[in-house]
Amino acid sequence: MAISEKPQQEPQQEPQQKPQQKHPQKPQQEPQQKPKPKPQPPPPRDESAVRAWLLVREAFTAGTWRRVAYALLAFPVGVLCVPLALLGAPTGRWQRGLVRRFLGRELSGSSRGLAHATAALPLNLLVLAVTVYGWSLVPMNLGWPLRAAGSDYSDAWGGPTFAGAWAFHAIVGGFGFLLLMPWLGRALAAVQLRLAATLLS
Question: What number is the average pLDDT over the span 135-164?
Answer without folding.
Answer: 76
